[in-house]
Amino acid sequence: MKKIIAVLPGDGIGVEVMPQAIKVLENVARRFGHEFAFNHAYAGGAAFEKFGFHLPEETLTVCKNSDAILFGSVGGPVDQMNLPKWKGCEANSILTLRKTFKFHANYRPVRVFPQLASLSPLRPEIVERGIDMLFLRELLGDCYFGEHTSFNQENGKRAARDVSTYTEDQVSAIAHVAFKAAQKRRKKVTSVDKANVLEASRLWRTVVTEIATQYPDVELEHMLVDNCAMQIVRDPAHFDVVLTTNMFGDILSDAAAVLPGSLGMLASASINDAGFGLYEPPGGSAQDIAGKGIANPIAQILSAALLLRFSFSLETEALTIEAAVERALDDGYRTRDIVRTSGVSQTTRVVGTGEMGQAIIDRIEQVSKNKAPATV
Length: 376
What we know:
By secondary structure, the protein is of the alpha/beta class. It has helices at residues 14-32, 45-51, 57-64, 89-101, 124-127, 168-183, 199-212, 225-234, 246-256, 298-310, 315-330, 353-368, and strands at 2-10, 35-40, 68-73, 105-111, 132-138, 148-152, 158-162, 188-193, 219-224, 241-244, 268-271, 277-280, 333-334, 349-350. Helices cover 39% and strands 19% of the residues.
């Protein structure tokens, strides 16, 4: 298989963890007989320095001429967010990519790795029941893309308005994605809304219920967003596929992201109807640790695995990467963000970004010798 991958490292730790993901993909390509070409481009503050824009036309051209996008992270230090280089950086970069390529479905798996269960902030008896959920967030509707206005009231006081809009087609599209994903998992969809208050949520619930009739093998439940927020902490094992709106999905998936103990363990994928996708870790640019060589590359590497699975339909290759990550953790490899707070055991190997990447690559060879990598 010959494929072109657009590589947008971005800012902060993005430029440190991205090379590790590239090395992993190159290793997989050699072992499985594929050919991946990597076309690098600028995004975020790095692009602003060179072009004066956070997402220049040159970058969009590279993406349009590729089969998938591997994205790092963008954004600057908190105390510099109002500087031209960083102001609006994330919105100008990632939201523009979503609009341009019509990425309507965001996949974010949230799983607690058994090797890191002690890092979860939840009680052990909750973690032991299992935490393995997939958030499917609609990306092109809701108040993020609605009308935004600021105005003065008749009394002279300031006011603001953000309009949330959903169409039947938008809800239908993401609902089909969720039910199909559930068919490959534990066959349950929890649709999250605020239908007791919001008209857009009532439409959401109605359309999702209609789509569910086409998937009789999948259980559907509806849950109000405030209850869902509580249940994610109280009983995360309850969930399989969580289907929700743009804003609720943004908030809930970030809340769930703390369950594994580190954002450095999470991957995400944003995909359009044609199967073209953007793959990124959701943890941000982490400017406070950038340049120190200590960032965890696992999220970027797992995002590369999602790229192989969703855009290239290379399931065995994706499973191989995921199994190699598991083996590296089994063997005690830890970046600083996933070291147990109680201390370092004799079997723990605290390593930097490059060493963790190499540990995973070394274990790809072990895993690829097996005909059927274990599903993780």
